[in-house]
Each structure stands twice: as C-alpha cells, then as structure tokens.
Amino acid sequence: MVIFIDDLDRCNKENIVKVLEAVKLFLDFRGCIFVMGVSIEIIVKATSSVAHCEDGSEYLEKMIQVSYGLPPIHQDDMKIYFEEKISLFSYNDILNKYSDVIIKSFGDRITPRKIKQFINNLNLQIKISDNKGLFEKDFYDENNNKIILKIDHYIYWNILKEAFRINFDSIKDNTDIIKMTQTAYKENEAQIKNSNFENIDKIRYEVVKDILKNQMLREIVINLPDNAEIINILKFESLAVGQIHIETEDMKGMREHYRSGAMVKIEKGPFLYTEEKIKEKIDYDYEIDIFPVTIEEYCKFIDIKKPDKKELDNWISLEGRIKEKDGKYIVEKCYEKHPIIYVSWYGAKEYAKWMKKRLPEEKEWEKAARGPNGWIYPWGDEFDKGKCNTSESNNNDTTEVDKYPNGKSYYGCYDMAGNVWEWTDSWYDKNMDSKVLRGGSWYYDQEYARCADRDRYLPEYRNLDIGFRCARTL
Asked: 0.70 cut: is pTM over it?
C-alpha cells in the first residue's frame, strides 16, 4: 500500500507534527510506503518546534529512507509548457509573441501553477472587455490622437502585476508614474540604451528611477498606453480578477505596506535608555505610529480644518510639497506617501490633537526605536545604509515612509532612523525653550540616525527634513 501525502508544508506547525507522528506509527509495517511531496525547509522548521526535538533535520532523518529533491524547471521547458497551454486561445499568436518576456519576468519563481493562473486570469479579463465592446471603442490621448485598447496592453499590465508586485502597487496607487516614466525615457533614450543612468539618478521620483534602471520593467511600462481611461480599465479589471496572492510569513513581514494612521502597542516595562544605556522604565502601555505622518495625511488635515493664514503660518511652511489651488490644498504628485516636512512643533501638536493622539515623549520614542535591549540602530548594532534614508544612502531627498522594511525597529516601526527628524513632546533641558527631535534625516549621516541621538530646535522652527509621528496612552 502506497500513501501519498501532498501539501503537508501548507499546514500549521502543530498539524505538520501531528501527521508526522501518525506516520511514525506505521513505519514498521511491511508493505506500507509513505510518499510525501513537501518543502523540506518548512518541515524542518516545524519539527524543530517539537518539545523533545531540538534539531528538526535529525527528527526527519529517523523517518525518511529515501529523499529526492526536485530540480528547478528550466525556463526553456516552461516556455514549451506555456505555448502548449495558450494554443487553445484565438489570440495565441499575440501571447506567443510575448512568451519570452512572460517567462523571464517570473524568474526563479516560475511554476506550472503560476503559468496557469496567469493565463486564466488574463483570459478572463480579455473576455470581459470583449463582451463590453471595449476593443472596438475609440480612445484619445492628450493630443487627440486615436488609441485603441489592445490585448497587448492586458499582457503587459498582468506581467507588471504578477512579476513586479511592489512596482505594480505604486503604479496602481498613482498611475501618473506611467506618464512620468515614458516622458523620462523619451528624453534620455540614447543614454539609457547605453546603460548611462547619470541623468536618471537626478530624477526626484524613486519609483521612476527604479523602473528606468530595470530593462524588463522599463520595457513593460513604456509600452503601456498613454490614456488614463484605458489604464483605469486595465487597473480595475485586473484588480477584480486573480485576487489570491499567497505569501510566506517572511514575505508578509517584508511587505507591510503603508497604512494611514496605523499604530503599534508598546508594553510597559524596562528598556536601555540614552547613550549610557541606563536602565529606564515606562510604567504604562502606549501606542505609537508605525509610520511618520505623511504629506497626504497632513494635507487632508489642513484641508478639513481650513486654518486662517496666521494659524497656517504657525503650523507649516507650504514650500514642503503642499500647494493651495482654488481654495483646496493638494499634494505634489508622487510625494503623497513621503513624510510631512517644514512642519513646526505647533503644527505637529495640532495634527496629533485632531487625530485624538499626541506627540510622543522622548522616552517613548526611544523605546519604540531601539527596543528593550538598547540597540544602536532600530534593526541592531551595525549600521546599514540599505535599511534607512541617511546621507550615505544618496537619495538626496525624503523617501516613501514604507520604503525600508528591513529597517523596521524591534516593535515594527518604520523610518526611526533617517528620512526626517521627528518632533517629540519633551523639552531638551531645564531651560524649556527647545523641543527634542529624534531619528536623524536624509540630510545627515549615520551618527545622527542612532536611536540615542538627540537634537533640539525652538518649537516654531521648521525645515526640509523635520516631520513627526504620533502616540497615545492606553
């Protein structure tokens, strides 16, 4: 008797161990064979959690008699598989034209299952648009030139969605990125083709720079149509189809995208404080914002509050990427998720009050940044320019508040090293004339990004690298 067990690695740890313990009961039965198709790394991790087993690999060695690791599927074989699957479609000639791009864009993550999902999702979107008559409809660009919706557009959009998820999320949230990328490409086409990115590095928008420097991604974006209505059709049809995206726990931790006003709980208790790492204690639970307050959030605040000129001047300088137009405040394109800047302590305090929160005390900020063990930086004791936005990172500007997931603090807070200095509610010294700022900024180097570093300014001061986050007592 042969018993095949598949997808065991999709179960939780407790159930994985229960199944394996049950299999062990049958190991001495003649004529009874168990065949398992699993990810060995996940099984080892699960069995390592068994109380009497410190080494998961040792646990498995006592059970498994024969093991065979499946080799990765070669891209040439995946291309053959792909072409077989699309042969049934009336537009298979178009899909065939893009087979190399589709296969290469998935890279090492490609599997037959992903290919089938991609084709099925794509086919459904195309059928829906066909039934709506969208392929026969005339669209027009900004110069009044006629454009038509093509199957090619759906193919490029879906490659972007499936193979370049982070970039897709940015474009989905701000479709103007497509136009900016296409314009920058036309202006610098010759240099880009020669891998000369000197002019590209001067572009202020990080996402546009990332796209233009990636040949595969660049080809996809510059071939999307220059028409907002078509892009919205692609956007909403693709969002309605194929919503299942399975991520590992590690991926989930790495891809916690920005959520407006999201907070994390910091439990009361001791921690190491200041440069001298003295033992300090906060005797109450509190919450602190996971992300710094963004330009978009602050713009919404002043748009609703509608302060008079005197109040507004006391809160913020509008040279910080917020503009007033026809009595409404708007954010400069592509800076919505960047931290607010040019805000005074008074402006930060008013926003926090409006949100029914407050500014964090200096101790609260430092504990949230360095954790209970007194780390030098939010992620540990060694500086890494790839985990924050300081002068070493060469961004020369603020970045989106969720850009550095690897730089999260012990408690999960983003941007507590670099990007912008953050106002706290604490006085710097007994003179009580200057408020404490923490965290360093994009303009300063790693020394100022240490969790214990302090700076100070008068409450009315504001600058191109000063922002804040909020807190509240539980």
From this structure: no
